[in-house]
Amino acid sequence: MADIKTIEGVDVRGKRVLVRVDFNVPVKDGVVGDDTRIRAALPTISYLVEHGARVILMSHLGRPAGEGYEEKFTLAPAAARLAELIDAPVVFASDTIGEDARAKAANLSDGCIVVLENLRFDKREKKNDPAFCKELASLADLYVNDAFGTAHRAHASTAGVAALLPSYAGFLLAGEVDTLSGMLDAPERPFVAILGGSKVSDKVGVIDALIDKADTIIIGGGMCFTFLLAEGKQVGTSLKEEDWVERAGEMIQKAKAAGVKLLLPVDIVAADAFAEDAAKVTCDADSIPEDMMGLDIGPKTEELYASAIAQGATVFWNGPMGVFEMKAFEHGTKAVAEAVAANTQAATIIGGGDSVAAVNKFELADQMTFISTGGGASMELVEGKPLPGVEALR
Ligand code: ADP
Ligand code: MG
Fold first, then answer.
1. Does 61 carry a binding-site annotation?
2. Which cellular compartments is it found in (predicted)?
């Protein structure tokens, strides 16, 4: 995948550069909350500013209806936050391809930035509508995609516009693609993949792909109960997907045949309700009480998983081990996060919305090698699916 061109070394001085960023940030009362995504785009934006480009930023925010302006989805707060973070003039255009956007893009000076209004106020964005792509392209001389988080969508701003302008990858997108495809194509071994989260059905492509690549697969989270069922165990009222038991069994067999170690929990923290204050017991994985649900991995499993993680030279983690949002059931996820962080010899790569949230919650983010900013996009890349936003840059 090293064949996507970044903007590094491209002559951008005096050029209008249309950059797709992911400024899909939480906003409350007109103020940006977590600004991680804006900060993640700063290397690309600063590079362009420092090299004298006229920078036109576009993004979506939330899920507007696509029928025009909706105050709660305006990008104005994101533009204001960017202005605080970057040492360059930032103006905001009150439309996306309308009069204000065209005027502000045309009148930009070198090293200055305009942020366009939410792309998804126009339903043609998600439809990758050719006329909309053309309008976007007409604003600029060059196109840069730095929105890895939406690279799995073939929208006007992520795919269609790339065919109309000389196109490059921003540093965030290029870093994501390099790291994740490097991990899949040539991992340092042993390669340990930890998979959790809620459902097998959500992650089947990822698990399947990783059985082909990894040396050890560790399974936790809600999905582990479908695997335990495939092993003939009773799982009480735990989250289970009856329709996926057979498929889970096939994956266990596939791993065995390939000589891949597939680890399942040996003990479970089970509760009598899906609640913080539920009564809970720790039991072996083959004796979950009939009327209880597993909400976390148990201490023996934590130990087993931690020692497998310690052996890895590459460690990839997606999906929490339990219902980590509740303090009563966060222990397994925390133990795994700590084990990953403690393996300082390994390349440690975290992908997925909730796994990243867990790592942040336990304040271990700075101890990981790489934290992916793209939930869905990183999962599709790991599954081996081509990402339209990346393919469009080739
Ligand atoms: P990611 O966003 O990292 O890819 P997922 O979205 O697949 O992860 O799964 C995260 C969710 O899985 C969390 O909300 C967590 O509470 C839930 N989960 C984990 N373990 C269990 C369990 N044993 N039972 C029910 N839900 C679980
Ligand atoms: Mg999630």
1. yes
2. Cytoplasm
- Selection from 57, 63, 32, 36 nearest residue 45 by Cα: 57
C-alpha of residue 308 to centroid of ligand 1, in Å: 21
Using most ligand atoms within 8 A of CB, pick from 323, 324, 325, 373 the residue to mutate for ligand 1. Answer: 323
pLDDT above 50: residue 206: yes
Question: For residue 220, how far is its CA from the centre of ligand 1 (angstroms)?
Answer: 9
CA 136 to chain centre: 26
Confidence band for 183, pLDDT divided at 50, 70 and 90: very high
CB 302 within 8 A of CB 331: yes
Which CATH number is 187-383 given? 3.40.50.1260
The rounded distance, in Å, linking the Cα atoms of 193 and 308 is 10
Q: Could you tell me the fold of the domain covering 16-173?
A: Rossmann fold (3.40.50)
Q: Identify whether 376 is a catalytic site residue.
A: yes
Q: Walk across the sheet containing 280-284 and list its strands.
A: 280-284, 267-271, 293-297
